[in-house]
Amino acid sequence: MSTEDTGDDWAAAMAEQAIEEAQAVELDELTDESQVFPADEAVKFDTIMDIPVTISMEVGRSFISIRNLLQLNQGSVVELDRIAGEPLDVMVNGTLIAHGEVVVVNDKFGIRLTDVISQTERIKKLK
Description:
4 helices; 4-stranded antiparallel β-sheet; 127 residues; extended; Surface presentation of antigens (SPOA)
């Protein structure tokens, strides 16, 4: 594939993204009326609701030697373990919770969740 072909692919992808402009929407507060907690359980649950967590989106990973790391400079390209178009990993405190895709809304990057990992699957990965 020539550099010219790669440029055409990139231009086509950017044009497609411009067509599929994401719309920002207000989300309702998540509530589940089907589960009613006893008063003491609700108080326990409320105490953890304001604990901050770190959320990060991972595009991919690469393992390189320190020698190669020290040779990196502006314009260097580091190959990742994923192919273009593959979903990003959404991590909370280092634990995979979802997969998503990059979106641009009002010139800001965001992520659209495409697959949320179930609680059962997350527990299995801990063991």
